[in-house]
User: Fold this.
Amino acid sequence: MASKKSVFGELVGRLFFREVTTLEVRDLAPSLRLVGFGGESLRRTTWEAGDKVQVYLPGQGMRTYTPTRWDAERGVAEVLIHVHGTSPGAEWGRQLRAGDRWQLFGPRRSIRVTGLGESVVLFGDETSFGVARALVGAKRAENVRCVFEVSDLAASKEALASLGVTGATIQRQAADAHLEEASERLVEALAAHPSAALVMTGRAQSIQLVRGRLKARQALRGGAVKAYWSLGKTGLD
Ligand SMILES: Cc1cc2nc3c(=O)[nH]c(=O)nc-3n(C[C@H](O)[C@H](O)[C@H](O)COP(=O)(O)OP(=O)(O)OC[C@H]3O[C@@H](n4cnc5c(N)ncnc54)[C@H](O)[C@@H]3O)c2cc1C
Assistant:
């Protein structure tokens, strides 16, 4: 059942929705779909890397995604969807086809990239590949160092390569054992880039754990923190 928050979001959002059409869907990996979309409504917009859009899923509420690029002049944009299961957003992403029409709210600020400085160390997972791509577009690849926890190492590497994103990919393990290595990679990246901002995204529980480890190593620094999903919670925003 849709929550009060999602019903309220739908009611308010309906006044401001932008209507778009899917232009192209490209499978970068079995669970990663790059979706190009467009529409007149995208022309009257201001977008910055790190911004989010909220997709309206009728009867389900809103689900949030990060445009990898946005061309207001041509009225086209793109999101990368992690099809992680059978939940509403994942199912929507799985079934999207060219020509489908849908509605979104935004773009709106999520991670404020201006003000972060020239370079960034990014932590996240498959849901963060989109923001990584957007950051690379805004700051150049060599200024964006990434550490991702992922379920499918080979597929993730291939997808990231096709997005032009470089960094460490760490295979998920039981009881979050892999976050030890992820934290190590982050400590190294932060030491190698003393002026880089630290941007943390992805699963809330991983962010919390890794932040604790970085703090213990006195490596924690400023930047931005935004949980993209949390175990057991739906439609986190
Ligand atoms: C600012 C922001 C930007 C985001 N950008 C992107 C993006 O660019 N691409 C993208 O794919 N996602 C992105 N997300 C994450 C996405 O909104 C969530 O994963 C969302 O929960 C997906 O909706 P759903 O209907 O599939 O799952 P929900 O109905 O919300 O959740 C159902 C269950 O699935 C679990 N779950 C949710 N996401 C995942 C996951 N990735 N892996 C495993 N389990 C999960 C939840 O904990 C819950 O138990 C972003 C989120 C935020 C807040």
Notes: The first strand starts at residue 18 and ends at 29. Helices lie at 4-14, 88-95, 129-139, 153-163, 178-192, 204-216. The chain has two domains: 4-108, 120-229. The two ends are 18 Å apart (CA to CA).
